[in-house]
Amino acid sequence: MSSPEPTLPAEYDPHLHQVYIITPTRRRYWLHVLLFLATVFTTLVMGARLQFNFINNLPPLRPSEDFFPVAWALRNGHLLLGIPFSVTLLAILLAHELGHFLYCLRYRVYATLPFFIPFPSLIGTFGAFIRIKSPIPTRRALFDIAVAGPIAGFVLAVPAAIAGLVLSRHSAVLVSDGDSMQFGYPLIFYVLHALLPWPATGAMTLSISDLYLHPIALAAWVGMLATGLNLLPGGQLDGGHIVYAVAPQAHRAVTRALILLLIPMGIFFWGGWLMWSFFLLLMGRWARHPQVSLYPPLDTKRRVLAAFALLMLVLTLIPAPFAGGSALEAWEQYTHQR
């Protein structure tokens, strides 16, 4: 239940609007193109490794393999193997950022083009982001800009997950051999796995943890993880903006509650939640949510979309993205080795 709408002050005049004079900076198109091409390359390299391992029934990611197998990928046409993973992942990330960007254009909010972040390991990227460089005029504009990104990414990630799950197969690899990474799965993967009309391969009788995920499914997994992280209801994440648009007075309290919740999640599920808790704490201390006009309030349609955003969070959030990654397990391993 959302907090009640604040009472309109007597001096409020719906015909008066704040006017901001913004001098747009010159767009550095070359930087956006360079970062995007670099991210295409890094995701192709890592996607090639994932596809090669899938074809040869090897674990998807192993610490013993090259940190960034660029020399291997450039030999014998291996790089082309990474196309399915790279295209799927970049399409999901691009859809998310364009969702934000296009709604910024709609409300005449100045924003940069997406910055992609290449990373030469694991999945080949740290994601993408846009920078908003002018004030957002109203709560409705803030809500639309914030929710458009996760919805756009989710809409692409779902069919990618379906296609990837259909292409996946029973794992004949002993994934507990100590030299492979095991993944946790979002709720949406379990739902799709249960609903898909599997062929007569017996896949439906298998637990999703017994499937060897196709690289397209892994790209969808990354997209779901990114969506869930962005929808965390705190700070200046997309979820935090949505909370502020729905109930401005509750934003600070919800952020603090999220910070406290992430601490035990980091201890028992995934140590990365401790980093996110610290990140949100710094965000609240040094970068408070910018003020946005309270009027007009959100209408019924947007409140329904807010409920859908909460549903997306439930479906995409992965409490333990990687098996054995909790702070408690890391501490036990450390004390055992001493």
Describe the 3D structure.
The chain has 338 residues and is mainly alpha-helical. The protein is built from 11 helices and 4 strands. It has helices spanning 29-55, 70-73, 83-106, 139-167, 187-195, 215-230, 238-246, 251-268, 272-286, 300-316, 327-337; strands spanning 115-118, 125-129, 169-170, 211-212. Strand 1 and strand 2 (125-129) form a beta hairpin. Helix 3 (83-106) runs antiparallel to helix 4 (139-167), helix 4 packs antiparallel against helix 6 (215-230) and helix 4 (139-167) packs parallel to helix 10 (300-316).
What would the average pLDDT be, to the nearest integer? 87
Read across the widest sheet, the strand sequence of neighbours is: 1-2
Q: How many structural domains are formed by the residues?
A: 1
* DSSP helix fraction: 40-55%
Which percent band covers the strand fraction? Answer: under 5%
Gap between N and C termini:
50 Å
* Spans where pLDDT lies below 50 across 5 or more residues: 1-13
The rounded Rg comes to: 22 Å
Output the helix-strand order.
HHHEEHEHEHHHHHH
Total count of strands = 4
DSSP helix count? 11
Largest sheet: 2 strands, antiparallel
Shape: globular
Content-based structural category: mainly alpha
Membrane topology: Multi-pass membrane protein
GO cellular component, one term: membrane
Family: Belongs to the peptidase M50B family.
GO molecular function, one term: peptidase activity
